[in-house]
Amino acid sequence: MNFRFLLELFVTWFKLGLFTFGGGFAMLPLIEKEVVEKGWATRDEILDIMAISQSVPGAIAINTAIYLGKRMAGFVGAIVAAIGVISPSVLVILAIAVYFVQFQENLYIMKAFSGIRAAIAGLITATAIRVASVNFHSKIAMTIIIGSLALNLFTSVHAAWIILLGAFVGYVVYHYLPNYK
Fold it and tell me: Is the distance from CB of 12 to CB of 65 less than 8 angstroms?
């Protein structure tokens, strides 16, 4: 087992885990940049990996870390990447638990969190546009995107059902109508 690579894997996912404000979706642009720059996956592969990670139970960042960790260094790599990505959150939660009252009453910290939330909204939007742009060439994919967006915004249909519906429509169209675009 290559200890140096495992250390690099841990440090990379630890750094990514430091930016989990707003949840795993806020990390997606950072994950994409880091993983593609390191040559661990191509841009198209990372978008597919993120889609798979979103489709299975668990946090998208942890799922992505585990998937790529296993791909790069087997079972041990999966464990190392998972520990790397969750460690910063555990440390931050412990610090917040200890100093919660002081954080809650500090106007500057509350204003900083307001700015962090706005930045996260931008990062999530950028990720959504990148993922959607891969599908702009296909009429059926655009239909699924628009339908999923409408279902999510205007109904109470659970996201899991929307994902399953998208998978079903994609399978049916691409399997039974392979020339339809």
Answer: no
Distance (Å, whole) CA 156 – CA 91: 35
Backbone dihedral angles phi then psi of residue 133, each to the nearest 5 degrees = -65, -25
- Report the sign of the C-alpha dihedral through residues 137, 140, 141, 147, in that order: positive
Residue 156 CA to residue 177 CA, distance in Å, equals 30
Phi-psi region of 58 (alpha: psi -120 to 50; beta: other; left: phi over 0): left
- Domain assignments of the chain as residue spans, ordered by start: 3-106
Ranges 32-36, 94-98, 104-108, most confident: 32-36
Answer yes or no: is pLDDT of 123 > 70: yes
Tell whether the model's pLDDT for residue 21 goes beyond 70: no
What backbone torsions phi and psi does residue 78 show, to the nearest 5 degrees? -60, -45
Instruction: Kindly report the number of other CB atoms within 10 A of residue 79's CB atom.
Output: 17
Per-residue CA distances from 167 to 5, 46, 53, 89, 140 (Å): 35, 18, 14, 32, 12
Alpha-carbon span 61 to 5, nearest angstrom = 20
Give which of 96, 63, 84 is closest to 10, Cα–Cα. Answer: 84
Report, as an integer, the average pLDDT of 90-108.
79
Per-residue model confidence (pLDDT) at position 53:
83
